[in-house]
Amino acid sequence: MIFEYCRFVLPAIAIIVLLGCCSSLFHKRPKTKTVAFLVNTKTNDAIPLHYWETSIGRSSSCDIVLDYPTVSRFHAVISRRKNTWIVSDTGSKTHVFLNEEKVDKRSKLNDGDEIRFGDASYYFSAPDFGDQVDAEYFPALVSQNNGKVFYIENDSCMIGRDPKSDVYLNISTVSRKHAEIFMDDGHWYLKNYSSNGVYINDKVMLDTRRLKAGDVLDIGGAKIIFEER
């Protein structure tokens, strides 16, 4: 009797726990209505962008998956900064080209621009959304290692090897309490707690520095792009 009860109840509990985990994974992903499109230059097929921060690559974990051999697993990110669209190269091997010019880390996007990720070419189409972006968008940390995006919804964000950290980095060269990103007087700063320091744009930092959009952070070998609203 007890065995039969457990046979049905335990799988049900497992499913509930799994759904709860999935819910927590997507909790920090502020989704909007369609905010822009990537239109294939050859087929005219349109891919909608549903986020103010959209990862693009060959990996199935990207928001937009491009199954091309010349596209890197985590190739690029398209994001909205106040009233400006930005395309950022997240360390791809074949680069990002905007109107046939290579993008050096990041570049401003305009409606009608042609973007090429490896051999995948698209027109960028975006209507004017005015000021509603500020209410929808959170600053973000974009991993160059795996393309994951973490949204900073509060005024501070702890990064470290401690599983309780807001951004958990399970890397031996990362300290348990390695660094903190926090807001002060309307600006974002990074404070270092580790003897190993943090590299910002390839320069070591051992104290506190103000961050700007596009800064590349190297935290114990984990490379992360700071994207500010």
Automatic annotation (TrEMBL):
SUPFAM superfamilies: SMAD/FHA domain. SMART domains: FHA (SM00240). Residues 54-103, 157-205 form the FHA domain. InterPro entries: Cell_Proc_Reg/RNA_Proc, FHA_dom, SMAD_FHA_dom_sf. This is FHA domain-containing protein.
